[in-house]
Task: structure prediction
Amino acid sequence: MPLTRVPLGARDGRERWTVQQDGRSYLVLDLGDRVVVTDALCPHKQNPLADGLLRDGSLVCPGHWYAFDLTTGACRNASETPLPLHPVVETDGVLVAEVVVEPHRSWSERLRAHAHAHEAHKKTYDEGGR
Ligand code: FES
Result:
């Protein structure tokens, strides 16, 4: 998969901010010991994550309170909706995220993927998961 490099700007004492590139928005979180970059919209129902709560190493979406582990991206509420985490490199004080560029998918491909994720969630739920 092709990568693109997204400049994140200077920290300037900020703890969180968003950047845009090529029509896509990213959320940058400065956690003190590391910088985490993810998509700015929740993978569940696309609510903005910029107002999410940081709790116990997770980002909690204000939409439906799904919690995403900021080390792995795993969703603690629904395993089929992980949060994409983009690697960050810092060179001479300049932060850049390395983002995988997804290939274009048609609407039918997107709907099939959505249906597949729904079936996976239903199977997990039927087996006693969350
Ligand atoms: S939109 Fe984020 S948890 Fe539903």
